[in-house]
Amino acid sequence: MYDSGKIIAGLLVFVSIIAFPFVYNIGADIVKPEPKIDTPVIQQMAVKQCVEPKEFMRAEHMQLLNKWRDSAVRDGNRVYVGSRGDHYNISLQNTCMHCHSNKKEFCDSCHNYMAVKPYCWDCHIAPKENSL
Ligand code: HEC
Ligand code: HEC
Ligand code: HEC
User: Fold this and answer.
1) Is 83:52 a contact under the CB 8 Å cutoff?
2) Atom 2 in ligand 3: which residue has the minimum CA distance?
3) Whose CA is nearest to atom 25 of ligand 2?
4) Which pLDDT tens digit goes with each residue over 29-59?
């Protein structure tokens, strides 16, 4: 004899497991990150631009950081000449995070959304944020 109650309950559990990712994504779309650039240093800039164009930074900042690290640590070169010809001191903490001092609202807002967790802050010092 089949127990139709159990079968229906089983089906309901099955359907909700299958549907979960879709239902879950509806919520995720709403909180799509909007990384904020309104830090004190960036507010002072006449031309608000990064070390490279925004589209490049968005897609390639991980590779650029690797290049910066290799340049500083392997080659002892701490000057980066950007594609626009401007010069930057190669430093995650003193250059990137000097402008992007709002790590939580900037870096973390994207990374949390994409579920990436850069391990850099195990060693590098993250900016102090106004949680005093
Ligand atoms: C001189 C200040 C300054 C420095 C230094 C700087 N940034 Fe930026 N960054 C900006 C500004 C301003 C923008 C927004 C540019 C725009 O809207 O065109 C930006 C944009 C970005 C973006 C794209 C954000 C988006 O919404 O797509 C990323 C990623 C980024 N920066 C990462 C970095 C990293 C990593 C470093 C160090 C290698 C760095 N930045 C150094 C000022 C800076
Ligand atoms: C516009 C969204 C966005 C912003 C803003 C952003 N990131 Fe990212 N970051 C990403 C994405 C997406 C990845 C994962 C890319 C991949 O896996 O190919 C990533 C990956 C990284 C990685 C490599 C991590 C790994 O484990 O591979 C580093 C390092 C990193 N980001 C540093 C930073 C820093 C530092 C900042 C702030 C100055 C920052 N990012 C701001 C979107 C962003
Ligand atoms: C195990 C500790 C450790 C981790 C984790 C780590 N770093 Fe570093 N990093 C160092 C040390 C030590 C130096 C050399 C500092 C110096 O010579 O001034 C360095 C130098 C750098 C430099 C060049 C100089 C500077 O002061 O910024 C960059 C850029 C850099 N690391 C980026 C990263 C990024 C991006 C990550 C994460 C994907 C990361 N590091 C993770 C220890 C670490």
Assistant:
1) yes
2) 123
3) 118
4) 546 788 999 999 999 999 999 999 999 999 9
